[in-house]
Amino acid sequence: MHKNFFLKNTLVLACIVLLSSCDKEYNAIGDGLIGENHFDFNKYTSNVIAYNQKVGPVQSNGLEVNALGILDDAAFGTTTANFATQVVSLTANPVIGDNPVIESVVLTVPYFSTLKSTDKDGNNVYELDSIYGPSDAKIKLSVYESGYFMRDSDPIGGFQQAQKYFTDQNSDFNALKVGNRLNDAVDGAQNDAFFFDNTEYVESVTDADGKVTKTKTAPGMRLNLNKTFFKTKIIDAVASGKLASNDVFKNYFRGLYFKVEKSGSSPSSLAVLNFAKGEITIKYKEDLSTTTAGVTTISRVEKSILLKMSGNTVSLLNESNVNTAYSNATNSPNVTLGDEKLYLKGGQGSMVILDLFSTAGELETIRSNGWLINEANLVFHVDASAMASSNEPNRIYLYDLNNNRPVVDYFNDQSTGLDVKKYKLVFGGVLNKSAAANGRGTDYKIRITNQIRNLIKNADSTNVKLGVVVTEDINNTVFYTLKTPTTFVSKVPKPSVMNPLGTVLFGTNIPLGSADYDKRLKLEIFYTKPN
Question: Structurally, how many domains does the chain consist of?
Answer without folding.
Answer: 2
